[in-house]
Specification:
The protein is α/β, with parallel strands linked by helices. The chain has helices at residues 3-6, 13-20, 26-38, 49-54, 60-74, 87-91, 97-109, 128-137, 155-169, 195-204, 218-230, 276-279, 290-307; strands at residues 10-11, 43-44, 82-83, 113-116, 123-126, 146-150, 182-184, 208-212, 233-239, 248-249, 255-256, 258-260, 266-268, 283-286. Helix 5 (60-74) crosses helix 7.
């Protein structure tokens, strides 16, 4: 993997040096490229290196779905041809052009797209069966009552989940016998699987996701990107003071601008805000006051009622 490609995420000098010494297989390179494509701007720290090695490749059919969803985003109007380029390799988590062509051949055989060279370049467009397939993808787990909650795991945030997020998701309509949806987060799920595999499985089983961006957590962005790629509805929330970049301060109110990494090298630090890839998404912002949290619960409950049909 080239350092130029990995630079699309935020790295410390220690991580850059460690990556240079790593050996990635062709499949691992494809997986990391695909992950970066879906998680632009996330920060990778030294302890994330092992996770890069263990990123699992999506199944072949899932990669086909990713290409179809990508084409939908690039299409301005039905019937528009989209010019093929090398970025499609990362979008589809493929090892190279040869594997990408296999994926494109599959979705062509499924009559989701047709290709053309009439414009001097290799281009494709979505056809009616493809639009129908996209509708199916956007109704993943339509009979599920599960809502996957992606969020920062701290004592404070766990309390926010129990007191406000969970009750908002598990609201009970007047006259109903029980709640329509069930809220889960991965640390509350008993399992014996690899944690990453279990996260993917639980997202797949879910009807929708609530993603809280407080804390600028790379894992939360990954989970939201995966759910979005499956076509799930994702409702974004964030504590208001985490929506913008800020300077960290210690208990005395003094600014903290550097910390030392494991090798005692200084690392510049700051409090990150919502990354620009998601900054334009509609989100519910909340404050850690009693009234602010009551208002947050009401807004989240109303958003779920309005969006999740």
């Amino acid at each position: 993997m080239s350092i130029e490609e990995i630079y699309e995420v935020k790295l410390s000098l220690a991580v850059i040096e460690e990556l240079k010494s790593q050996k990635f297989s062709l499949r691992q390179t494809a997986n990391i490229s695909g992950w970066i494509r879906e998680n632009q701007g996330c920060k990778i720290l030294s302890y994330d290196i092992e996770r890069l090695h263990s990123i699992r490749a999506p199944a072949f059919h899932e990669r086909a779905n990713k290409i179809l969803l990508m084409l939908e985003k690039m299409t301005s109007y039905a019937g528009e041809y989209i010019k093929k380029d090398d970025s499609w390799i990362a979008h589809s988590w493929c090892t190279g052009d040869m594997e990408l062509r296999e994926v494109l051949k599959f979705i062509t055989d499924q009559k989701w797209i047709i290709g053309s060279t009439d414009f001097g370049d290799e281009s494709v467009k979505i056809i009616p069966n493809g639009w129908a397939r996209l509708e199916e993808l956007k109704k993943s787990s339509p009979n599920s009552n599960q809502c996957f909650v992606a969020m920062w795991f701290t004592d404070e945030m766990n309390q926010i989940f129990e007191d406000y997020l969970k009750p908002a998701i598990e609201y009970i309509e007047p006259g109903a016998k029980g709640s329509r949806f069930k809220a889960i987060k991965i640390d509350n799920v008993e399992h014996t699987n690899d944690i990453n595999d279990e996260i993917i499985a639980q997202i797949r089983r879910s009807r929708f996701m609530v993603c809280d961006l407080t804390g600028y957590r790379g894992g939360v962005y990954f989970e939201a990107g995966f759910a979005y790629g499956l076509g799930l509805d994702v409702i974004y929330t964030c504590r208001k003071d985490w929506t913008k970049e800020d300077i960290l301060k210690d208990s005395n109110g003094d600014e903290i601008t550097t910390l030392l990494d494991s090798n005692k090298n200084p690392v510049t630090v700051k409090k990150e805000g919502v990354h620009f890839d998601l900054a334009h998404r509609n989100r519910i912002e909340w404050e850690s006051t009693h009234e602010g949290l009551k208002d947050f619960k009401t807004k989240l409950e109303n958003r779920i009622k309005a969006v999740i049909v």
